[in-house]
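Sorry to interrupt, but I need a hand with the structure work. Could you write out one complete protein record for me, on any chain you like? Just paste the record in under my message, thanks.

. . .
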Amino acid sequence: MPDVVVHNAVILDSDPATFSIDFADTWIAVADGIVVDRGRGVMWHQCASPATRIIDAEGAYLAPAFVDIHTHGGGGHNVEDGPDHLGAILDVHRAHGTRALVLSYVSDTIAGLAASLRVGAGLARENPAVLGLHAEGPFLSPDFKGAHSPEALTAPTPEAVATILDAADGRLAQVTLAPELPGAPEAIARFVAAGVSVAVGHTAADYAQTMRAFEAGASILTHAFNGMPGIHHRSPGPILAALDAPHVTLELINDGIHVQAPAARLVTGLAPGRVALITDAMAATGMGDGDYVLGSLPVRVEDSVARVRSADGSVGSIAGSTLTMDDAVQRAVAEVGMSPIAAAQAAGLTPLRALGRLAPDVHSLLRVGQPADCVLLDADMRVTTVWIGDRR
């Protein structure tokens, strides 16, 4: 018998082609943190017992808990700070509906990055909330370095690629690189062969260079619009290359700062089902304004916007974000105009597909037999309740 039944809900977890929002009559039954049944109407009565906790969702949305494939930190810590601080990072993101994330590491020397990846690989082996590791650099363009130390940037030599793969010990989920760098085509082939999702980002590449990278196996555009040339009618650039490559997922930092709503509407409209909401969150997420560090760079957060702080106290490039996934989802509906189910899938199904963790024909994360990690959202898509495992 189930421990919990949530009924009178609109479950945002099905094929969008057949999804209907007209009736809030779907329900889900959970035992020991696992989905044991789900359906429509009043049939939930038949699977409940006197000991079952019955929750009336009162017509609210129920969605799978979120997945963030680009996260640098939270709760005052970055992922480079080591295993003692992983709990604080996870707690911040879980409180906002994220059940699992990828640990993203900023550019470092090859030796320094390898040391961080070895630690991260251990965390990924031990903690199911860590989906894997993301090396965002150091194979990046100095012209679009963003909040990456210019001293750490380098070309992807075979030796560097081998060192990174060895250090990650099979836990490298994603690597971001600039495809115009010397050795990039060979690096893409090597990473793809190792089962790593290759992302194009922090790049000066034009449309043709980017498209060649996608044809070679790259399959993600790192935080679309940021760290790359914009769209120009005579120089279409990497964004339009990603839109023209049907296998490519476009990451979107949907905070209204990195990407404003009209640009977000462009990519979500032209690439339905291929936009993955991410946070790019750094240490200040869940904290407040003040001074922080991202990699080796000092960062100042003012009005929740993180920027690199120079020695003279001035601020420059945006340095990650303080965004949480619930805010990204809410903005996706309220400002970008995505449907509730499209927004929910951009925060769950699509990120998992981008990493090769979900088959294209799977449209449900809350299937019978799967973990009942879910969030309850009100009519404005704001998270009101989070269930991760058997914890509320």
Notes: The longest helix spans residues 110-126. Residues 4-63+361-387 form a domain with the Urease, subunit C; domain 1 fold (CATH 2.30.40.10). Residues 123 and 328 are 26 Å apart (CA to CA). The chain has ten helices and 21 strands.
